[in-house]
Amino acid sequence: MRQMIRNACCATFLAALALAPIAADAGEGGVNVLILKEHGVGSAASAQQYVDNLLAHVARQNKWPSAAGQYLTSRSTAAQWIGANSPHYGILSLAAFLDLRGKHKLEVIGSAEVTGGGGHQYFVVSASETSLAGCKGKTLGTDHGDDTKFIDKVVGRSDFSLSDFTVEDTRRPMKTVNAVARGEVACALIDDAQLASLAKADGGAAVKTVWSSRELPDMAVVAFPSAPASEKASFKKTLAAVCTGDGAAACKEVGLRSLEPAGESAYADVIKDYQ
By CB neighbour count within 10 A (0-12 exposed, 13-18 middle, 19+ buried), where does 256 fall? Predict the structure, then answer.
């Protein structure tokens, strides 16, 4: 009985630890940065060491006393992290940016082009149907269905809503691709990274695109209200240099191809649709 109690207590402690926000320690006068890359390939843990290297480079480049950051793939975990760490900046997937923008008063200062991250364009594909109309009313496999507002308003727009299908949550990117290739679902909603991986799936050659979205903006580089105006202006000017020189290797490992200064006008269309 005592062992059972000890095991239960241990399990409870570990569960609570897993749910707790991870603290950044930029030190006094340091800068905290969040990288939130949803639906990406690979684990946050494996990317973290490269984030640490990248942030050390950015701190030197901008003459910050120090910088610390966190690479996350979950929006709910990111929300906890923001509350615990008061970040100055973030690099956010488009859907997460649109969702968090109003609540956290985010200001766009740049854009981030990613390598193989997906989310730049979306597609409805099928091995059996030949049109979007043919997919409606049938099973739609997708791992993007956790954000209905984003899919309905920004991706599908006037062409479709998730309610037009019987949605099957496939949870993982390659599971979605395999499900449609094997005929386990009639159709699938995938992004550009998943479309590129279709060739690797058994039966993928038979899967055809029946609908394509417009191209969407890159991940957003944002400033939180905690960022001082002078620091923010200076950081924006140096964004294009982050993934060059000493920062090139770290950017590559994190999945960033380049950073560029940008304003809200670059995201105006999707912000309007989302609202």
Answer: buried
DSSP class of 24: P
Residue 180 near residue 124 (C-beta atoms within 8 A): no
pTM across the whole model? 0.85
Cβ neighbours of residue 208 under 8 Å, at least 6 residues apart? Answer: 125, 126, 127, 130
pLDDT tens for each residue of the chain, 275 residues long: 444 333 433 333 233 333 334 555 555 568 999 999 887 655 556 678 888 989 999 999 999 999 998 989 889 999 999 999 999 999 999 999 999 999 999 999 999 998 866 789 999 999 999 999 999 999 999 999 999 999 999 999 999 999 999 999 998 889 999 999 999 999 999 999 999 999 889 999 999 999 999 999 999 999 999 999 999 999 999 999 999 988 898 888 888 899 999 999 999 999 999 99
CA–CA dist 180, 188 (Å, integer): 6
Start-end of H helices in 160-258: 173-181, 192-197, 229-238, 248-254
Structure tokens at 40: 């990406």
* CB contact at 8 A, 232 and 51: no
| Nearest of 190, 202, 271, 221 to residue 93 by alpha carbon | 221
CATH number for the domain running over 30-115+217-274:
3.40.190.10
CA distance 248 to 54: 9
CB-CB contact of 256 with 69 (8 Å): no
**What is the CATH architecture assignment of 122-212?**
3-Layer(aba) Sandwich (3.40)
Stretch(es) of the chain classified as CATH 3.40.190.10? 30-115+217-274, 122-212
DSSP H or E segment with residue 139: strand 139-142
